[in-house]
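Lab meeting, item 3. Inverse folding demo.
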């Protein structure tokens, strides 16, 4: 019976989902600031200009999508929307895949991580970002 509870609209308006999304937002924002400072101060002498640019791009996209995730959290406090919930999930996965892979790609010389493993993950994260924005667009165009 609890399994079917996951498909009820009231579950997604619940404070559990809102709390998870807001917690993910806080963690994404916190780590974006920390990673930005780490890149600017600690990694700057260790990375080439190209690698530092890759690191900064990861931070930049993480911050942009943390703000989008925060807007999803605020929207879901007011009303239930499967589309906005799905957008939030896509933004979280996009941050992890896109920004996460850029951080690892930028430091691959330091960590000796093969680029062949990380390269395909970045566009997957980009597709999650695009999917998130598509869900926001669908919600905006949806008839109420």
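The presenter then showed the designed sequence:
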């Amino acid at each position: 019976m609890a399994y079917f509870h996951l498909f009820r609209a009231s579950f997604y308006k619940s404070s559990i989902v809102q709390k998870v999304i807001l917690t993910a937002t806080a963690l994404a924002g916190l780590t974006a600031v920390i990673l930005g400072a780490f890149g600017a101060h600690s990694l700057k002498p260790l990375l080439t200009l190209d690698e530092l640019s890759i690191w900064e791009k990861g931070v930049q996209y993480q911050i942009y999508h943390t703000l989008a995730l925060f807007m999803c959290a605020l929207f879901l406090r007011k009303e239930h929307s499967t589309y906005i919930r799905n957008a939030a999930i896509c933004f979280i996965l996009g941050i992890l895949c896109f920004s996460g892979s850029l951080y690892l790609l930028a430091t691959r010389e330091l960590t000796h991580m093969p680029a062949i493993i990380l390269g395909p993950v970045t566009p997957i994260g980009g597709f999650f970002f695009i999917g998130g924005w598509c869900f926001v667009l669908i919600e905006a165009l949806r008839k109420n």
